[in-house]
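Operator note (shift B, R.M.): manual run for Protein NDRG2 requested after the automated queue skipped it. Running by hand, logging everything below so the morning shift can see what happened. Input copied straight from the record, untouched. If output looks odd, do not overwrite the archive copy; leave it for review.
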Amino acid sequence: MTTEMQEIAITEEKPLLTGQPDTAKDAELAARILLDQGQEHSVETPHGVLHVTLHGTRTTRRPAILTFHDVGLESKSCFSTLFKFEEMQEIVKNFTLIHIDAPGQEEGAAAYPTGYQYPSMETIAEMIPAVLQFFNFRTVIGVGVGAGAYILSKFTLANPDSVEGLVLVNIDTNARGWIDWAAQKLSSVTSSLTEQILSHLFSQEELSSNTDLVQSHRDRISKAPNLVNIELLWKTYNSRRDLNIDRNSTFKCPVMLVVGDQAPYEDAAVECNSKLDPTTTSFLKMADAGGLPQLTQPAKLTEAFKYFIQGMGYMASSCMTRLSRSRTTSLSSSYSMDGSRSRSRTLSQGSQGGQMPPSPSQTMEVSC
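Run finished. Output pasted below as returned.
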């Protein structure tokens, strides 16, 4: 009986040596961290260092979405609810998010020493170009809330070619008048800093009912180790100058104004709307919404933001679902099929069936 010896070749599916780098897995992990947790950077500017967190896909083919928070908040507490919302992920996966924290406002920031000269609103706006240069972005879509909306407005007016679109939540373009100044002085005597800021962030209805959201922010602000920094930003915001915008001197990009119908700055947002170019401005007034719609109404704001992005020629195939089901009057936008954008595009009132009607010649006020 003859036994034939056969040579068998064994091919290793994976290398037996340990400790070798797996570049594919490393890249996947890095991308996941960038998308979920973000990458933190300290960006040097001509006026000091800014703390910046980068999220989403790292691509410069599209504008970055650049956010700026309100007083009493930082980028995480101001925008996490919105940009981690399930239906917002369609945008997050296609754009880079750049979250800027105002000087000394980021989590873990050391308190400034007594006598520290905090930068003005104008100076903070002048720090933003260095951030774009650091990440090699030529243009951005700005999303600002309260003080952040004011800062991004200053930046946009000074750098019109750097901003493709602007979403302003609770914007107040006016400087404080004498009556407001006197009321603020009285409030500083009778109310704590925390309560003053809460009155800025939330409606009276929200404060009276003392919702969980209000209480969580009360605890966070009052116990913040950098409370002195928050106070400096609060004083700086209250010392802001008038933006001096009107129909002849205004933003050169599409603008979406957002405010809750119970928000402290509803009247200010309405006044701002009256000053802007109606062919490039949309006004979203949210029914039954308080001072922070990005936290309490992320679904509605996400859908409106998607339409706004479409209006600039981006994400034309984006699925619009929630708002079209939940209200009769919905937002839609006119857009270019080839993806090119136009400065004259604006959000318009949508027709049923998801069709895209021509943009109107006047601003639409939409309650949702």
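Quick read of the result: The longest helix spans residues 121-135. The first strand starts at residue 39 and ends at 45.
Leaving this for review. - R.M.
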